[in-house]
Amino acid sequence: MPLIDGEFISLVRAKQIPGKKRDYSSLATWESDRQGDVGDLTASGFLEVAEVEGPGSVGTVVIAGWTTDATSYILVRAAQGHEATHKYRTNKAFIQASAADGIRVSAQQFTRIEGMTIRQTGTFEAISMENANGYRVQKNFCWGGLGIFIEGRDSGGANQSITHSNIIIGAGNGGTRAAINTATALNAAHIHRVYNNTVISGNDCIKKTDSNNTQSRNNYFHPNSGVGGIVYDESTEMFAGNQHDITANIESLVGNKFRHLAFDNPKFFNDPHNKDFGIKEFANPFRGSGQNMNVPPASF
């Protein structure tokens, strides 16, 4: 577990590989052990990093009880070469979940989740970020379950939460939740920024609840027309919830693309029958929308 450039890095891998050291076999063991050793990252002044390798599932985890800030925070990321791509693979940094959220982060400011592949077969979130702000969830591949839940609840913070360049497939099936949910931000300056995601949903693609500020740009929203009750309208239905005041609560809908197509339509995706959901470059009018695993959004 080396300290490199201000990052305390733990290697998490489910399977032991002969001749290659690992620190933990599950994220839950990493979280419990490292929180017991450190806990207050603001006192140590470094980032706490769980670097995940495949193959095999490293299990579900609840991250809670730490003390973090904008410069000393928790980062769960795929190791180099094990990052999620636009094709679903379980030999990458992988979590299999069914009876709990894949990754649940509770009241931990500025936590980041990057490059994970998460298969959720239950009615839970793949990633749930609750009760704080400054989160960043990026470049993950989430399949099934209830997608990604982002909640900002820090009345004293004006930090943005960013959800970008994720692929979310089949979320919402069996439940009433959207693939991406943004919830309460008590501070008016706290903005949920949802950029460059590719979403194929069995329910709403994105839902804004309560009077939070959500900015949605350059996403590819692909509702499953085979599921009843899904209506997509850029002005109202898209952000179904307690608030429908787009001008007051939704800063921008610039560049979002909407399309009613079958789940596995190969016209716009590389090879959906083999779980490759990269968007074809020639797939107008959707060129330039959706995830790009290599390039972050132009600006936040």
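(the above was protein one; protein two follows)
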Amino acid sequence: MTAQNYKDFSPLMNLTNPDHILSSTQSHTVGHHQRGSNESGEPLRTSFMPAFETLLGILVICAAAAILPGQQWGLLNVQPHPLWIVVLAIAVRYGGRNGYLAGGFCGVAYGLLLWTRPEVRFQALTTHVLLQPFLMFAVGALLGEIRSARERRVHELETNLRGVRNDLGTLWERYQTIEKLKGELERQIAFQSDSIVALTELGTRLQSLNLYDLHQTIVDISASFLRIDACSLYLYQSESLLLETGVPEIWNARKLEIDVHDPLVGPAIRDRRVMSVIDLVRQKERSVQDTQALMAGPLIFSDGLVYGVVVIESGPFGSITPSSILLFDKILNWAAVALENAILLERSRSGVRIGEQSRQEVEISWVLTPGLRGR
């Protein structure tokens, strides 16, 4: 993949952003919580059935009092009164306002039975007599509230349980992803010995004192460790970049000379750091199509002099990552030290050869001029 292809994939770069992934996961979980709270509301209960059952219970008790022999008016001789069964049953079964309803109906029914008793019919009822109808209403209301509170609590627990299950599902997906990454890392560690051997071999090659060998080694290392398809080395000479060597040796898109104002190579030289097409996509200053490079990094000596630029010309889509950029920078630093040492040694050897040639010339002149020895 070349630099032009990265323009089409720029919208996908958000997918590698951890913050973007994290925010998407959290919004997905919150959505599940909201849907769960809307879907699992308290079951709808109409007041018709509780009221009907309450009235039916009252009628059954009154009918039983009329049919059963030897019973007083409205079964008032039975204590606790059977109306308590209706109050407790409706309040416990339905809860909420239905407890108020059952307690109120049964309290009124019990008061009417007391008021219409044959022996004291239609006489005013004392406070002591009205205590039991009031207790029916109070107990029905209390049980209804207890049942309603219990249902609300159960509903809250169910909602929380759904949220916990959603969170566990998300954690399980992340756990599976981590397991896959763990397996991949273990696989890479299993073959780490080969990488160490390759690193040792390439490090030995960087110890060479021959500049041409070092030039070839630098592009070989970059292509091998970065797993790219094409790489080349350009030497910085007289404000121009001239091709020195590359991998592979023949690459149709490779130029013999690169302009120092190239949108990718230029900033790499100016800022003294590795630049990639990802930087161009983010900055949006110049088009990616204005450059043929995917990544470029300068070879900088200890005195700040730029010796050359290593250019990554083509590679897989996933080859340009923060880790690969960091690795590329380390390779360039290592190579720059090796090149500087080779150049210093070459200069030292040149100085020794010049000194040796001068000494030989003096000895020859000493032999050829005997008169000088007698002085």
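Reviewer note on protein two: Residues 127-190 form the longest helix (64 residues).
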